[in-house]
Amino acid sequence: MNETMQSVLKHLETNLSLSEKDVDVIPLPFASLPDYFSVVYVEERGSHGHVSYHYVFVNGKIFSSADRNGFDKILEEINFLKNQTLTATQIAILFRLLKVSMRDKELLTKEDLNQGSVLANYAMPAAIRDSDGRLEIEFY
């Protein structure tokens, strides 16, 4: 078992009182995130996907959707406000993984909207805007 999986299992046991026999742990490849991110999906066995968590690893640290502040902490870790090394779409993906359970939802991309979709009349691709010194991230 690799170090990432061991970290997830330790976090589950310590913070959620779940053991390896209670969960399925599945690495998720995300081509749209930088290579230095890795993502793991955890689902409680028998929950049929209704009890699940995401774990994101960056800089050797673990961030979890089980932690209410996981999204905020990962933005602090990568120093996003100063460096802005991620695109709006990548920020939206992290938000979806760590902050809001969107199990049955998909993030709209520029490619989705360029395919003549009726959605193009109502939505726009993810964007980052500087508004009076504040960063605003908008996505659908």
Please characterize this protein's 3D structure:
By secondary structure, the protein is an alpha+beta fold. It has helices at residues 3-16, 70-77, 80-83, 88-98, 110-114, and strands spanning 23-28, 38-44, 52-58, 61-64, 127-131, 134-138. The strands form two sheets. It has a four-stranded antiparallel β-sheet, with helices on both faces. Strands 5-6 form a two-stranded antiparallel sheet. A hairpin with a 2-residue loop joins strand 3 and strand 4. It is globular and about 50 Å long. The termini are far apart. The mean pLDDT is 80.
Blueprint (SSEs and pairs):
Blueprint: H1 3-16, E1 23-28, E2 38-44, E3 52-58, E4 61-64, H2 70-77, H3 80-83, H4 88-98, H5 110-114, E5 127-131, E6 134-138
Antiparallel strand pairs: 1-2, 2-3, 3-4, 5-6
Key words describing this protein structure:
140 residues, 5 helices, alpha+beta, four-stranded antiparallel beta sheet, two-stranded antiparallel ribbon, globular
Distance between the termini: 37 Å
Helix content: 25-40%
What is the CA-atom radius of gyration, in angstroms? Answer: 16 Å
Instruction: Provide the spatial order of strands within the biggest beta sheet.
Output: 1-2-3-4
Main beta-sheet annotation:
4 strands, antiparallel
Q: What is the succession of H and E elements? A: HEEEEHHHHEE
Tell me the β content.
15-25%
Strand segment tally: 6
Classification by helices and strands: alpha+beta
Please tell me what the overall shape is.
globular
Q: Could you list the spans in which at least 5 consecutive residues all have pLDDT below 50?
A: none
Mean pLDDT over the full residue set: 80
Number of helices: 5
